Amino acid sequence: MLYNNASVAEKRDELDWVDQDLFDEAIEAGACLENLIDKWQLLATLNGDYSLDKKECDIGELVEGTIRANAHYEGDKKIVFSPFYSLQGKLRLKIEKGLILVALAALIDNAMKYSREGGTVDVLIIKNHVSASIIVADRGVGISFDRQKEIFNAFHAERGSEDQKKSGLSLAIAKRVAELHGGSIFFMSIPGQGARFILKLPLDREDEEKTETALHN
Question: Which of 54, 66, 101, 138 could cross-link 111 (Cys pair, CB 3.0–4.6 Å)?
Fold first, then answer.
């Protein structure tokens, strides 16, 4: 447990070991609540009259950076990321970078969270003449059929009854981010065999011309 306030850490040290455990649980609960409030506020903002601040970004670099930033969170499970193939350095889209990073982090965190120990998460970037798709796939517990219709709804249990405490806000935010960019997000899953989430973003003519030019340079 890390504390960003020295006085809080000092107060913890004054407690006996039983009270320290209770203290840790209280701090963790507070952090979870703060994270929940932050996500709820973001979703409410995105559902309002939100105007994107688009700038040209390299999609491959965003994906690679998101994997590096999130890979350590499930370190005890020893999750392996498979090599992913993309037009890194060549596929550039006009997007709001911060929001796409939030959506990517949600998909990657979701895949890691529900992967089995030592599992593999596959990340793939593909494109055609109208869209670019980022695919995040795991081989974990999958999504039960009775929950698949509500997977993008806020405050649902994400993949099963053992996850009743999960807010479901991350996937709801990812869906809204895709919609704001004129894209979509969907999934395929067989219970017990994992899930595959696809974030699809549209290419406009300018994006396509820049990508084709980069491919031939």
Answer: 138
> Does pTM surpass 0.90?
no
Residue with tokens 């929950």: 147
The token pair at 180 is: 């704001």
Q: Which residue has the tokens 């979870």?
A: 32
- Confirm if 141 and 114 have CB atoms less than 8 A apart: yes
CA dist list (Å): 128 to 197, 203, 207: 18, 9, 12
Q: 25: buried, middle or exposed (CB in 10 Å: 19+, 13-18, 0-12)? A: exposed
Q: What is the pLDDT of residues 161-180, one digit of tens each?
A: 454 445 678 999 999 999 99
Q: At 67, which amino acid appears?
A: I
Question: Token pair of 178, please?
Answer: 């895709």
